[in-house]
Amino acid sequence: MLAPSFRSAAAASIAMLFSFMAPPVSADTQNPIEIREWNVPYEGRPRDPFAAGPDEIWFVGQTDGYLARLTPSTGKFGKRDLGEGAGPHNLIVDKSGIVWFAGNRNAYIGRYDPKKDEIERVEMPDPKAGDPHTLVFDADQSHIWFTVQNGNFIGRMAMDDRAVDLMPVPTEGARPYGIKVAPDGTPWVALLGTNKLASVDPETLKIAEYTIPEEGARPRRLEVTDDGRIWYSDYTRGKLGRYDPKTEAFAEWTLPSGDKSLPYGTALGGDGRLWIVETGPQPNQFVGFDTKSEKIVSVRPVPSGGGTIRHMMYHPESGVVWFGTDSGTIGKAVVSPDESLIVD
Questions:
Q1: Residue 275 pLDDT more than 70?
Q2: Does the pLDDT value for residue 56 go beyond 80?
Q3: Rounded distance, CA 240 to CA 226, Å?
């Protein structure tokens, strides 16, 4: 059940509808995950779901400008319109239940309080930072780190006073995209416009860049394992890449669909398994890769087709990867930790 204030807001802003769940794709010994999807009752490219709990899934409608919430146990949805031109790209939910989102077309980070049905805008301090892109919390949720793709910035916003720092990426046209914070507190960023990764010193805010050996590499999303190694999807070359900051060494693996793979969304499971979606094949394919054995553990088609799966989140309490699709669904992949299911 949605919070009363969320349900009782103006009818023009909020709608409550039921959705129908697509038939699940069951797990088997060769493909040890199960996928379920819910048809979103609104247009607008539902994407970037965030699980605030196992039964509270928030996401954005990028092209139609809304925040929405799915209650999986009931199939109910609620929607909060953001007004013309918002272009929300990504959202995250803090430990107090506040939703933070990237106003990608209006140069702001938004704060939405579901209980009060109130929105606060944190404007970008530089007009060149017009497209806040992907947000992520640091470990204690004192800051939000974020990328600004076309503006070519990496940003940091303080949660207490909303102060924003913007750091220009040294490489022009680098297109900072996916971002994750490593266990040591260092933000790492995939630079989609070039063959580089970047890190930011959280104390000095100095950016360092790391060149992937292959000039044609284009990293899009990334994950950081507990050992500090960086795993990234190479969108143009159909590779899964890895960078080890300790040895400064790169390694890569060809994904099942090769150069037609177009790997995009990624999520890291609690068992050290990386989940990556190939968006070139239709239907899209969920590919599981064990970062310890360095083997593929699963290749699973998405029931709705997916269109393009852009960003994903692993919810550790339920062992579920949540994703949105251009096919108009919000989905979950129940991932298996069973070591006996590794595919040789």
A1: yes
A2: yes
A3: 18
Q: How sure is the predictor about 336, in pLDDT bands with cuts at 50, 70 and 90?
A: low
Chain segment 231-268, per-residue pLDDT in tens: 999 999 999 999 999 999 999 999 999 999 999 999 99
Angular region, 85: left φ>0, alpha ψ -120 to 50, beta rest: left
Give the rounded percent of residues in the chain with a pLDDT score beyond 70. 88
Q: Side-chain half-sphere of 236: how many Cα atoms within 13 Å?
A: 11
- Token code pair at residue 340: 């006996």
Q: What is the pLDDT of residue 7?
A: 39
Q: What is the pLDDT of residues 162-201, one digit of tens each?
A: 999 999 999 999 999 999 999 999 999 999 999 999 999 9
As a whole number of angstroms, the distance between CA 313 and CA 27 comes to 20
Going from the C-alpha of 263 to that of each of 27, 182, 256, 319, the distances in angstroms are 22, 21, 10, 22
Q: What are the DSSP E strand ranges found in 236-318?
A: 239-244, 249-254, 263-268, 273-278, 285-290, 295-301, 309-315
One DSSP character per residue, 159-216 reads TTT--EEEEE-SSTT--EEEEEE-TTS-EEEEETTTTEEEEE-TTT--EEEEE-SSTT
DSSP 98: -
Ordered DSSP codes for 9-48: S-TTT--EEE--EEEEE---SSS-EEEEEEE-SS-S-EEE
Other CB atoms within 10 Å distance of the CB of residue 247: 8
The answer to whether 44 and 62 are in contact (CB under 8 A) is yes
Amino acid found at 132: P
Q: How far does CA 77 lie from the centroid of its chain?
A: 20
Helix, strand, or coil here: 64?
coil
**What does the DSSP 8-state code read for residue 115?**
T
Q: For residue 87, what are its two tokens? A: 């272009």
Looking at every residue in the chain, the average pLDDT score rounds to 90
Cα 288 → chain centroid = 16
